[in-house]
Specification:
There is one protein chain. The protein is mainly β. The protein is built from no helices and eleven strands. The strands form two sheets. Strands 2, 4, 5, 6, 9, 10 and 11 form a seven-stranded mixed sheet that branches. A four-stranded antiparallel sheet has the order 1-3-8-7, with no helix packed on it.
Length: 111
């Protein structure tokens, strides 16, 4: 069993920045894919950024150049640095690791 705890969400003005963190505990396997999805009201959950099992990164086209995913293996934590935020980035952000999900953290970007 793996537990994921997210933090770092909040309210920010357009153009601002936030950094999300996702700390994992439990039976962690470092080879698993991990990353972030988001879900805005009335929309489907979409992949934002992720590490694949071979360590390469993927980003949604809408966040390329603005968001950066990183990880600290010693801390079992994955981060999402979000810069130049836009109102359309408003959503609940969920981290995942393998088949496990966090509870979500709200990000709201005001115009």
């Amino acid at each position: 069993q793996v537990q994921l705890v997210e933090s770092g969400g909040g309210l920010v003005q357009a153009g601002g920045s936030l950094r999300l963190s996702c700390a994992a505990s439990g039976s962690i396997f470092s080879i698993l894919a991990m990353g972030w999805y988001r879900q805005a009201p009335g929309k489907q959950r979409e992949l934002v950024a992720s590490f694949t099992r071979d360590g390469s990164t993927n980003y949604a086209d809408s966040v390329k150049g603005r968001f950066t995913i990183s990880r600290d293996n010693a801390k079992n934590t994955v981060y999402l640095q979000m810069n130049s935020l836009k109102p359309e980035d408003t959503a609940v952000y969920y981290c995942f690791r393998g088949m496990y999900w966090g509870q979500g953290t709200q990000v709201t970007v005001s115009s």
